[in-house]
Amino acid sequence: MTDNKYANYFTEQSLWEKLREYAKTAGTKVVYAVLLLYYTMESNTVKMKTKLSIAAALGYFILPTDAIFDLTPIIGYSDDLGVALFVLSQITTSITPEIREKAKQKLAEWFGEIDSEELRQIDEKS
Question: What CA dihedral angle connects 73, 77, 81 and 84, to 10 degrees?
């Protein structure tokens, strides 16, 4: 994702509101990818250019009018996941084991028992 226009839609408050309201609908894969992006962006060691790419991906997730309407059953968040995975693949060296653990802990708070295979699929792509 090289177009950072979506970064304008990112705010921490709007991200948490979207996650609070739609986490169950989006599912663990999407939420885990979003949390990885968010916690990576929080890191003091991440460069500003990387943070802008992350903000763009998170802004795309937050934006209610993206390529595929988010409330569309099953496929509604597939474009959000695709954007998140693309950015994750570009910033993989910035994602530390501590960031992954923090994202998994937050995911467990919201979803309880988590299918580690689903998370492994995301980790392999990022």
Answer: -170
Comparing CA positions, the residue from 72, 61, 67 lying closest to residue 17 is: 61
Residue 73 in 3-state DSSP? coil
Report the distance separating Cα 17 and Cα 56, nearest Å. Answer: 17
Specify the pTM.
0.85
* Residue 22 in tokens: 């739609």
CB 95, CB 38: distance < 8 Å: no
Q: What is the pLDDT of residues 87-119, one digit of tens each?
A: 999 999 999 999 999 999 999 998 988 888 889
Cα(69)–Cα(4) distance, integer angstroms: 20
Contact by Cβ (8 Å): 91, 53: yes
Q: How far apart are CA 85 and CA 122, in angstroms?
A: 8
For residue 25, the tally of other CB atoms under 10 A from its CB is 13
Q: Which of 6, 108, 79, 89 lies closest to 40, judged by CA?
A: 89
